[in-house]
Amino acid sequence: MTRSAVLRSLRTIVPDTVLEQEEIRDIFAAQPEIGRLARRIIGASFNGSGIDTRHTVIGELSSAASANESVFYDRESGVLASPGTKTRNDIYVREASRLFVEVARSALDADPDVVASDVTHVITASCTGFHAPGPEYEIVRGLGLSDSVQRYHLGFMGCYASMPALRAAAQFCAADPDAVVLVVSVELCTLHLRSSEDPDLIVANSLFADGAAAGIVTARDLPTPVPAVRLDGFHTAIAAEGEKDMSWTIGDHGFEMILSTAVPQIIGETIIGAIRPLYAREGELAAAFDQGRVGERVEHWAIHPGGRSILDRVQERLHLSDAQLHPARETLRQYGNMSSATILFVIKRILDDGATDGSRIAAMAFGPGLTAESALMTVSSGVA
Asked: Which tens digit of pLDDT belongs to each residue from 213-256?
């Protein structure tokens, strides 16, 4: 009988520099070009974000940073700079390359049954920078993997990219039961923050952060139980509306995120139809879903915390409890929206909080398009 692929040995990393939400709010509100209306929008967006802290690779944004030569922020004048896209991407290449290797190594080191020579595939995901050879190459070289390792990079897909990365990993394992796939996401969203009076950019400034996550996907029968989730199934849907409400483009002064205030409403209106096909394959779960009781049958919900209002709308439409949204809200509170890495942070939190063996996890992430990626998982071993 073919074994299902499992995701195990999840590890996460964030940069050292911590952004206190109130402090960074005041920096953006104090910029000389910001008018009274924009200051009110900044206050409302940052205060209502559900975020306390975020992390960034931009050390000069730290309150403890010295007033030396600055690229993004002149601490003496309090003025935010607007470096060009090349400058931002150069920092991405340096910092993301380090984090890709570091978090991938952490996942391998955490697994008692998998070593570097076992890895057959590397899948990386990132939408906050570009370079070639890319991050999947950096991981092969940095970890001393075989040159024959198959390498794939999912670039510029946005916040949902870790979901198709996991799906592709599961498909590789279905084709080759001995496959061992490293799935790694690194996002440095703060490299693209900039002062603006545009409400969409203000919302982005209030939410996005930096983070890295990695895990191992395999169908091998490994001897040591570790916290893991079985990857049961995936589904992709595109909302009829929303293409212009969530997008990610390249500008002269960084990448530009459009995240309109209509996104939570669009998600609320379309989420039932978007995820119904996933549950239709699940027998008793399908009936519970159609009766509006799926939250009673699926204990854990790994929802990508694109923002507090998105989580509010998902909770309302699916009739989920506060406890079921707690992992997503806590991830948002502590780390902000780290784009594609965030869903892996939420899954790890569910496992760390003691999800029981055999319990189900529903995962969802949203991104440009407006695209909704969903998955069903089962906690499979090693969890009390």
From this structure: 999 999 999 999 999 999 999 999 998 887 788 888 899 999 98
At 154-203, the pLDDT tens digits run: 999 999 999 999 999 999 999 999 999 999 999 999 999 999 999 989 99
Cis previous bond, 305, omega within 30: no
Q: Distance (Å, rounded) from C-alpha 153 to C-alpha 68?
A: 36
The Cα 365–Cα 375 span in angstroms is: 9
Burial call 131-163: b when 16+ CB within 10 Å, e when fewer:
eeebbbbbbbebbebeeebebbbbebbbbbbbb
Sequence-separated (6 or more) residues with CB below 8 Å from residue 271: 313, 314, 317, 318, 364, 372
Identify whether the C-beta of residue 61 lies closer than 8 Å to the C-beta of residue 205. no
pTM of the model as a whole: 0.96
Average pLDDT, the chain: 93
Residues 327, 311: Cα–Cα separation, whole Å: 11
- For 208-244, b/e burial (b = at least 16 CB within 10 A) is bbbbbbbbbbbbbebeeebbbbbbbbbbbbebeebee
Phi, psi (rounded to 5 degrees) for 176:
-140, 100
